[in-house]
Amino acid sequence: MNPYLSIIMVSRNDDHGEGLLKRMSLCINNIIHFTNKYKIDTELIIVDWNPPQKRKLLLEVLPKPNKSKYLIIKYIVVPNDIHLLYDRSEEIPLFQMIGKNVGIRRANGKFILCTNIDILFTDKIMRELSKKNLDTQYFYRANRCDVPNDIDLTWSSEYQLSYCAKNIMHRLGKNPKYLNLLTAPPIVYKLPFLATLLNYIHGIKRRLTQDPVKIIEWNLDTQACGDFTLMSKEAWFDVQGYLELDLYSIHIDTLLLIAATARGYKQYIFEPEKCIYHIHHESGWESMNPVEKIKFVEKRPGIGMDLIYEVGPYMLNRKIQFDLNKDTWGFSDVNFDEYEY
């Protein structure tokens, strides 16, 4: 099979955020359902990073595709000795973006979607992808809608998605019809006249501002971009994947959007109804209050938005690349154990 789409995820069997196995199983079943429904030739790559000792590998506990002719699931196991190459290997048990690079370097799809293991795709977003009309000169973003973690594995895929649609807790991402509205209460979008007026007013502010913070906020759809960033395989290789830093993964996904934009790729944001659902868990970054985030960053240092707002305009104005990754980014020179189903 020559896949049109490669989906990249990274995880480990450590029960992160509680109930991880259930969330992962829901996600895999969702992909199995839609690749069969819409006949999308898909390669799902799951990178099992630093598997915990005395626990089963992900390939042993997650659903199989039942000999689907539209879906191949490939597991890549990145062992502990690779993980220990990083100074913060004890504090950070999983280097998510480096793991995604491992998948990107080994993907066969014409387009590559980097996402996470606790995502459910909606019917409308998968129907859109099934049209196979993606443009190699764009990178694609979709809204993320958080939903409760009480979805039952025994429910049908249709009922799971119906439940999610009725129980959206929070939405992250821009509305492409009102790109100048950085933040607005949901009620605003239900009032087209008011939304259009506010969008026009903020559009004037956008053209007048020289504030680098606002330039990044207005130009790029950075909220939850680690959950859905899609572009061609050539584009991923062109920007050299995600930055491979010995840090917690926060905002490294934002740097990827900056790198792609600096390289000349254009942003496309899917309409709000073509969203993805994120199964809520208490340990997620969005679930923490500001004080909890301080303690989290104390243990697992990461890049702050202050640096994003400094490096973003610098790169975009000069149209330059980071050039910080090695030529062998994604451990392209290492033969990992791979299992295919």
Give a brief rundown of this model:
The protein is an alpha/beta fold and 341 residues long.
Write the layout of secondary structure elements.
Blueprint: E1 5-11, H1 20-37, E2 42-49, H2 58-61, E3 71-78, H3 80-83, H4 96-105, E4 111-114, E5 119-121, H5 123-130, E6 138-141, E7 144-147, H6 157-166, E8 170-172, H7 186-189, H8 192-208, H9 212-219, E9 229-232, H10 233-238, H11 252-262, E10 266-269, E11 276-279, H12 290-299, H13 305-318, E12 337-340
Parallel strand pairs: 1-2, 1-4, 2-3, 6-10, 7-11
Antiparallel strand pairs: 3-12, 4-9, 5-11, 6-9, 7-8
Helix pairs in contact: 9-13, 11-13
* Count of the separate structural domains: 2
Mean pLDDT: 92
Q: Class by helix and strand content?
A: alpha/beta
Supply the CATH superfamily name of the largest domain.
Spore Coat Polysaccharide Biosynthesis Protein SpsA, Chain A
Description of the molecule:
There is one protein chain. With 341 residues, this protein is α/β, with parallel strands linked by helices. It folds into two domains: 5-174 and 221-330, Spore Coat Polysaccharide Biosynthesis Protein SpsA, Chain A (Alpha-Beta Complex); 175-219, no CATH class. The chain is built from 13 helices and twelve strands. The chain has helices spanning 20-37, 58-61, 80-83, 96-105, 123-130, 157-166, 186-189, 192-208, 212-219, 233-238, 252-262, 290-299, 305-318, and strands at residues 5-11, 42-49, 71-78, 111-114, 119-121, 138-141, 144-147, 170-172, 229-232, 266-269, 276-279, 337-340. The strands form two sheets. Strands 10-6-9-4-1-2-3-12 form an eight-stranded mixed β-sheet. The protein is globular, with a radius of gyration of 20 Å. The model has no long low-confidence stretch (mean pLDDT 92).
